[in-house]
Amino acid sequence: MQGSKAALRYAKAIFSLAKDKEVTKEVNDDMVLIRETIDGTGDLRTFLKSPVIKDSIKKNALLEIFKDVNGITSGMFDLLMENNRLEILSQVAAKYMFLYDQMNNVQVAKVTTAIPLTPALETKIQQKVKELTGNEAKIENIIDESIIGGFILRVGDIQYNGSVQAQLNNLKREFKNNTYVSKI
Amino acid sequence: MAEINPAEVSAILKKQLSGYEAKASLNEVGTVLNVGDGIANVYGLSNAQYGELVEFESGLEGIVLNLEEDNVGVVLLGSYKEVKEGATVKRTQRIASINVGEGIVGRVVDTLGAPIDGKGPIEGETFQMPLERKAPGVIYRQPVTEPLQTGIKAIDAMVPIGRGQRELVIGDRQTGKTAVVIDTILNQKEFYDAGEPVYCIYVAIGQKASTVAGIAKTLEDKGALAYTTIVAANASDPAPMQVYAPFAGAAIGEYFRDTGRPALIVYDDLSKQAVAYREVSLLLRRPPGREAYPGDVFFLHSRLLERAAKVIADDDIAKNMNDLPEVLKDKVKGGGSLTALPLIETQAGDVSAYIPTNVISITDGQIFLTSDLFNSGVRPAINVGISVSRVGGSAQIKSMKKVAGTLKLDQAQFRELEAFAKFGSDLDPATLSVIEKGKRNVEILKQAQNNPYPVEEQIAIIYAGSKNLLRDVPVEKVREFEKDYLEFLNAKHRDTLDTLKAGKLTDEVTDTLTNVAKELSAKYKA
């Protein structure tokens, strides 16, 4: 999470500017795009991180890639370039999305399952999250076969682990914890 | 290895399974940012408290020791190889604590109270005692009045320890520090047999597992494990386990203290604990001070040793004691005590190093062991001249006080004159008599390891020494004489010894002792 503190500062500034201009929604769409593009393209990540490539080239490339973005977003590229902070771009985007969700009382609920969630289950989970936190949930489904069955729900700092794997682990620990074996 | 019966195995497995229930619960979690050298930084866990136990996915536990803006520093109570970056960490809502009950007596446990002696779980009702707890306030204490018999002649006569006192045992390596405290534990058997046990807690910090196993065996062989608990954080255990081991021991001791019973705790040794604490502190990036110890190493030891106390006898006042754990509130009784015997290892007799000076200033006196004495055959190698007990004097039984009153002075005089004697010049009879008496007293104060003396026998032999009744016995025969003398007294004059034990020193008693000593010493006359 290096640079996460700085990213939050930038995100806050951008967010408050967007709020003044009433374009938070548009900027958020840009941020989602930026985040998805950077996370999805290894080359772009390496390119942004590389200390060899000049920042001006980086900025031009970014403007080329993200052509139809809001004025605020392109301004962000400028600011980050000037401050030599282009490498935290993806984190700034993530923090912005977090702030935007917070404003709209929406929380990201990460649901890890072994098989994809059905829409019916998704609404059920949404209801449950609302019950727990009082916020609307944006479900992010992560497929991980290693949990075998059940699900892990994570909203912010709260986690509900109902996976088969966790239960097996508990059972394993119970057996390992044998007080009839001398350890001295 | 013992034969294992398949039926037994299933029974044990069944027992373990019966406690297991498939449960999933809502937890507050965080994510491991980085881990290394026994410290993990965790993002999230925003509500975690200082000193709270957290649990990693593998079941490994840690203690929250650094609270920062967006992450917390956790010290791991186990191998950090099981923890990976990005792993989730769970809050347990439990401030570091240990489960204590009557069943913990006779067991060997680790810092978190988990039994490690292979004798199964702790039996009976247990109470959660916090590792870190404030010491009792002034109004819940009373002065030290009862003696804590160590069974070591030199200590009980000249540096007496009272119940509730904190007496430091300090000396170089290999001077018999552990032997002194183990003897003290063994000597409490008398009280256990009489039905008024002094519960003993031996905290082994940073020692070899083989040493701890050896001590456990000695205690068991001598029947002392029946009233003793061993808390072990061995050299191979992570540093935080070693740092908290004395606190776990103190928590066990407090259980007995607050339920109105006497307890004795031995910290073997606090120098190693300080070293472990230094390691943890440096890894947490706390600034180093003198000898690279952190600034609060004094507080570490002072708050630990302050927990030793003699609790006021009045139940009603004791019930309101500060910082009592909820679970213990209705069981509190007054009159309990916790006596602490911390050990400190010095390097080449240097007591002006940081940790020794700290602990000397915190405790109510110190027993000084020197390698010179040890090597010249004076064992226990207690240097009487510089050993002191600041409060124990008022706890000595009357008969011992009367008999031993002059002993310390005599020995001081002897040490001074001994230097002259080395020149071999002609000495006047008065000087010669002081030296001869001193030599015999030194012999009297010697005793074998694991061989504590009951207090009445101590008084009897010290009486003979301080009244110079041994002047006809050659120095090398003094120990032989002592054996005969005590055997004779035990066989023929048990009533005299009982009077001494009761704290009385009547003319009748002194006459008997004098007569017996004179009679026996005649046999040794050359």
From TrEMBL, chain A:
What this chain does, per the entry, is described as: This protein is part of the stalk that links CF(0) to CF(1). It either transmits conformational changes from CF(0) to CF(1) or is implicated in proton conduction. F(1)F(0) ATP synthase produces ATP from ADP in the presence of a proton or sodium gradient. F-type ATPases consist of two structural domains, F(1) containing the extramembraneous catalytic core and F(0) containing the membrane proton channel, linked together by a central stalk and a peripheral stalk. During catalysis, ATP synthesis in the catalytic domain of F(1) is coupled via a rotary mechanism of the central stalk subunits to proton translocation.
Q: Which Pfam families match?
A: OSCP (PF00213)
Q: What is this protein called?
A: ATP synthase subunit delta
Topology with regard to the membrane?
Peripheral membrane protein
Q: InterPro entries, from UniProt?
A: ATP_synth_OSCP/delta_N_sf (IPR026015), ATPase_OSCP/dsu (IPR000711)
Q: Identify the main location.
A: membrane
Q: Which domain of life is it from?
A: Bacteria
Can you list the GO cellular component terms from the UniProt entry? Answer: plasma membrane; proton-transporting ATP synthase complex
Output the HAMAP family linked to this UniProt entry: ATP_synth_delta_bact
What Gene Ontology molecular function terms does this protein carry? proton-transporting ATP synthase activity, rotational mechanism
Family statement drawn from the similarity comment of this UniProt entry:
Belongs to the ATPase delta chain family.
Task: Note the PANTHER family from the entry.
Answer: ATP SYNTHASE DELTA CHAIN (PTHR11910)
Gene that this sequence comes from: atpH
Q: Where in the cell is it found?
A: Cell membrane; Membrane
Keyword annotations from UniProtKB, A to Z = ATP synthesis, Cell membrane, CF(1), Hydrogen ion transport, Ion transport, Membrane, Transport
TrEMBL record, chain B:
Membrane topology term: Peripheral membrane protein
Keyword annotations from UniProtKB, A to Z: ATP synthesis, ATP-binding, Cell membrane, CF(1), Hydrogen ion transport, Ion transport, Membrane, Nucleotide-binding, Translocase, Transport
Q: Which reaction does it catalyse?
A: ATP + H2O + 4 H(+)(in) = ADP + phosphate + 5 H(+)(out)
Spell out the subcellular localization from the entry: Cell membrane; Membrane
What's its top-level EC category?
translocase
Q: ATPase F1/V1/A1 complex alpha/beta subunit nucleotide-binding domain spans which residues? A: 151-389
Gene Ontology CC: plasma membrane; proton-transporting ATP synthase complex
What does UniProt give as the signal peptide span? none
Q: Which family does it belong to?
A: Belongs to the ATPase alpha/beta chains family.
Function (record text):
Produces ATP from ADP in the presence of a proton gradient across the membrane. The alpha chain is a regulatory subunit.
Q: Could you give the subunit structure recorded for this chain?
A: F-type ATPases have 2 components, CF(1) - the catalytic core - and CF(0) - the membrane proton channel. CF(1) has five subunits: alpha(3), beta(3), gamma(1), delta(1), epsilon(1). CF(0) has four main subunits: a(1), b(1), b'(1) and c(9-12).
The record ties this protein, via PANTHER family, to: ATP SYNTHASE SUBUNIT ALPHA, MITOCHONDRIAL (PTHR48082)
Q: Know the name of this protein?
A: ATP synthase subunit alpha
Q: Which organism is it from?
A: Salinimicrobium catena
